[in-house]
Write a structure and sequence with these properties.
This protein has one domain: Arc Repressor Mutant, subunit A, CATH 1.10.10. Helices cover 61% and strands 10% of the residues. It has a two-stranded antiparallel ribbon. Helix 1 crosses helix 5 and helix 3 crosses helix 4. The chain contains six helices and two strands, in the order H-H-H-H-E-E-H-H. With 150 residues, the chain is mainly alpha-helical.
Amino acid sequence: MAAVSDLNAHTGYLLRMVSNAVSQEFAGKVAGDGVTVAEWAMLRSLYGSDGISPSALALKMGMTKGAISKLAERLAKKGLIERTGNPDDKRGHSLSLSSAGARKVPVLARLADNNDAAFFAVLSNQEQGHLRGILQVLIDRHGLSTMPVD
C-alpha cells in the first residue's frame, strides 16, 4: 500500500477547518439578522457608494453578473438595496443601499468584528497580526481577488 499523507499534514486542509468554523459561526449570526454571508458581502461592498453598476460590482466582488443579479433581487425584496436607472443608458442601472440597508451594514459589521474577536481571542495580538500578515502575503502573491462568500 502506497504511503498517503495525513489530512492534517495539508496546510490547505487546516485553513479550511479554521475558515469553516469562523464562517459557520458568522453565518448563524447574520442569519439572525435576516441575511446570508453573500448578502452581507454585497451590502458591505455597496456601503459608502452612491451606486454601482452590477457589472462593476461583479468585478469588485469577483463574482459573475448572474450571481450579482440573484443577490440583488433577494436584497431588493428585503428592502435593503435599490435599483436606479441610468439616464445615459436605458438598459443600465445602478445598485445602492436603501436607507434600511445603510442602517443594517454597521450592525452586521459589528457582528463580523465580534465574531472575529471571539474566535481569534485564543491568539495574542502579535499572533493575530502575524496570521493576517501571512494570509495577506498569500493573497498578494497568488493574485487572489475573489470575495469569499460561501
